[in-house]
Amino acid sequence: MKTNILVEYDGGGYDGCIWEWNYFYIDEDGKFEDVMSSGRGGITTLENAKYLLENNGNDFSD
Fold first, then answer.
1. Cα–Cα distance between 15 and 20 in angstroms, integer?
2. Which of 6, 41, 47, 62 has its CA 20 to 30 A from that of 33?
C-alpha cells in the first residue's frame, strides 16, 4: 500500500444532497488519518481506505 499520501474522493451520499469532496491521509508509517468524511460514502477506517485504493471505488453499502 502506498504511504505518505493525501486522497480526495467523493463522499457524502446524504438523502437529497449532492456528493461532497472528502479526504484522508496515510502517513509514512501507514497510519490512517481521517481529514474529512461525510455521509454514507465517507471513509473512516484504514480497511475502507485500502479498499478504495485497491478497487478505485468507495461503495461500502450492503
1. 13
2. 62
